Every structure is written in structure tokens, then in C-alpha cells.
Amino acid sequence: MNQPAQTIERTTATEQPVLSVRNLTKLYAPGKGCHDVSFDLHPGEVLGIVGESGSGKTTLLKTLSARLAPDRGELLYLNSEQQLMDVYQLPEFRRRQLLRSDWGVVHQHPQDGLRMRVSAGANIGERLMAVGDRHYQQLRKRGLEWLKAVEIDEDRIDDNPSTFSGGMQQRLQIARNLVTHPRLVFMDEPTGGLDVSVQARLLDLLRNLVMDMNLSVVIVTHDLAVARLLSHRLMVMRRGEVVEQGLTDQILDDPQHPYTQLLVSSVLAP
């Protein structure tokens, strides 16, 4: 990243956590997966999860977003009606409903989060229809608004994502996820595989959307510059366990755990 790193400001500080995680564990083998992870995520807060490949951060993200069942642990979500929900105790259809409305998932590869054979507008409209919107003109209007919001030419609304560049596909995936104004968004390496200039534009876009919408976000990244720019707090993982967590600037400027020190000094490969 060539642009100066800067952190986004929290807009809230005292609210009840939107997500409470207790002793979350999902193991495939010793040291493979995630083990005994606990934290709270507050409204408007961004938590970054970093670590080398195989550290367990992607497994943790999939388990947090209820796409993977844990071996044990508790995941409590505070919905917009201020009702506390034990996510793993919900029926499967209710978990799917969460992922279509209150939650969003931005994949590293946008093809995993888009329908590539329907138009850009339809990708956005489908998410709105999942929460009950049915009026065609209103769906199209919202689609145009969100294409503009993520810096895609509105004339591309009827084009398939397969005709878009990688950066445009990622921005469309972001629009598809945010159009329903979710309270919680999970992001897996959202800038991975993009050119540096495209990454910079996408990071500026994400940073502004997170602040404007007061989103709560859990983001996995191997790029510490991305973590510093987007996250308020940082969680460092190694062999499935959290070895250090705290304020992002604190950890990156004064790491305490030997592994974090190596990670920050770029001795470890991402």
C-alpha cells in the first residue's frame, strides 16, 4: 500500500455488543482450525483478524458467520429489535435469513458472492427481494443508487458481472451485501488479488461506507496495512489460537507476543 495508513474512528463506545463470542472452537486436527476464541464486537466497531496462512482465521470467520458449525462455543447476536439470539441454536432457515438480511459476507473472490449469469442490477435486487421488496421500479432505483455508491457506472446495471473487472466485481459484491443495510458484515481478504491502485480505491470506499453506515465488521486479512486502515481492534492468530488482541495501533506499534513481533516485522510470510 502506498497511501498513508490511518485508522477509522469508532462512532459508538458504550452500546451492548452486537456480537458476543465465547470459547468458540472448530478443529480439524491439533492446531488446525480455531480454538477457544472469545470476544465482543460493538456497534460501529471493526475487528481485524490477522495471521499467516493456516493460522485458523478463515475457519474462524466461517464459524462466526454461521456457515460452519462449531465443535463447541457460543455465538450471541443482538438484532435490530434488541433481542439476543443464540445463533447456533437457531433453525437453519433462520440462520440463512440472517445472512440475507441483518448480516453480509464479502468473499475474497467475488465470484463466490455474486450470481455471474444475471445482471448487476439483478444481483442487487435479489438481496432486496429476500427482505420483501417486490416493486420493479423501486428495485431498479435502489440498484442504480448502489452502483453509484460503489463507483460503478450506472449504465452497467444491465451488464453481467462476468464482463466486469476484478475490482468492479468486488465493488458490486459489496453493494449486493450492503443494500439491505446489514448490522454486521464479515469480510474475507476483500482486497486480495487486486492491483495496488485498485486496492487503494476499494479501501477508501470500504472505509467511507463503514463509517457512513456505522457497520460492525469482522475482517480477515494478511495485509497489516489493510488492518491498520480499517480496524479498530486486532486479533492475532497462530495455529488456531488467539495469541494477542487489543487496539490496532497498540498491537502494530508495540506488539507484545513474540509471534506478533515477527509478523509485524514481516519475518513471517503471509
Q: Outline, from the CA principal axes? A: globular
Beta strand % = 15-25%
Radius of gyration: 18 Å
Average pLDDT confidence is 90
Q: SSE order in H/E notation?
A: EEEHEEHEHHHEHEHEEHH
Can you put this structure into words, describing what you see?
- With 270 residues, the protein is of the alpha/beta class.
- 34% of the residues lie in helices and 23% in strands.
- The strands form two sheets. Strands 6-7-8-3-9-10 form a six-stranded mixed beta sheet, sandwiched between helices.
- Helix 3 (120-130) crosses helix 4 and helix 3 (120-130) runs parallel beside helix 5 (166-178).
- The protein starts with 18 loop residues before the first strand and ends in a 6-residue tail after the last helix.
Quick gist of this model?
The strands form 2 sheets. A 6-stranded mixed beta sheet has the order 6-7-8-3-9-10, with helices on both faces. The protein has a 4-stranded antiparallel beta sheet with strand order 2-1-4-5, covered by helices on one side. Helix content is 34%, strand content 23%.
